[in-house]
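Deliverable D2.4 — example input (structure tokens):
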């Protein structure tokens, strides 16, 4: 079976008011969207349950982070079990903002991924290189090293719960999008890594989505690449053009 196109919207720490949040929900609920696409919105934790309750049922929600413990003295954290209990199906893990600003290592991301899957969540697992790493031609080495602890933590069967998001750090929130050729090359390398480190079947079935300054203007060319199975969208997910990105394949 082919890989279903996937579009995620990462609201990050936006919007600031419930009124703005309601306006975003209205845009999505009123839109004519391609029902062949899996659409997942990741709002701030505060809005997870309200979004789940007010968004049309074809659109799912994701947390932007979760911890690897089930409960206890971990102030400020949310556990995978709590998300599952609240009916939240997905979590984003390893976003570059968490790796950079909150010093999350690939080992921690692997522990969180293991715990999320054990609890019953699906994971949008983010990887990607910095500009300096790309310029030093270390993109594949860096991304493989980010994936390796996750490969070690998961069984091959776990991978049907994972969507890999390739998000070059230099393209996130910068307006500097990867070219279609750059995205395709990186996605092909990730698929090759999964084929060798997990299995060819897992490599073939795992969705690898691109993130980094995706807009309505560039989504068609990026989405036309054979190894690009969708997008993780930050800034543009807060704008009406997000609907055009969801409908990339139309
Ligand atoms: C992101 O936050 O995952 C992202 C890709 O952001 P942006 O689309 O704004 O670059």
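Example output (designed residues):
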């Amino acid at each position: 079976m082919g890989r279903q196109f996937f579009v995620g919207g990462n609201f990050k720490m936006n919007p600031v008011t419930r009124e703005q949040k309601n306006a975003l929900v209205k845009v999505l609920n009123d839109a004519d969207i391609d029902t062949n696409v899996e659409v997942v919105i990741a709002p701030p934790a505060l809005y997870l349950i309200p979004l789940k309750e007010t968004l049309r049922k074809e659109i799912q929600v994701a947390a932007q982070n979760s911890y690897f413990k089930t409960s206890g003295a971990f102030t400020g954290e949310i556990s995978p079990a709590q998300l599952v209990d609240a009916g939240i199906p997905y979590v984003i893990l390893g976003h570059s903002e968490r790796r950079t600003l909150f010093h999350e290592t690939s080992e921690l991301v692997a522990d969180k991924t293991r715990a999320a899957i054990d609890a019953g969540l699906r994971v949008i697992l983010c990887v990607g290189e910095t500009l300096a790493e790309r310029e030093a031609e270390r993109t594949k080495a860096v991304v493989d090293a980010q994936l390796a602890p996750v490969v070690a933590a998961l069984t091959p069967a776990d991978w049907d719960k994972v969507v890999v998001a390739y998000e070059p750090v230099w393209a996130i929130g910068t307006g500097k999008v990867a070219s279609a050729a750059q995205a395709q090359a990186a996605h092909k390398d990730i698929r090759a890594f999964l084929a060798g480190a997990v299995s060819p079947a897992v490599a073939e079935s795992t969705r690898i989505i691109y993130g980094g300054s995706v807009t309505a203007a560039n989504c068609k060319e990026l989405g036309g690449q054979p190894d690009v199975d969708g997008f993780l969208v930050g800034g543009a997910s807060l704008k009406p053009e997000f609907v055009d990105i969801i409908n990339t394949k139309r």
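Residues 10, 12, 167, 172-173, 211-214, 232-236 surround phosphoenolpyruvate (CB under 6 Å).
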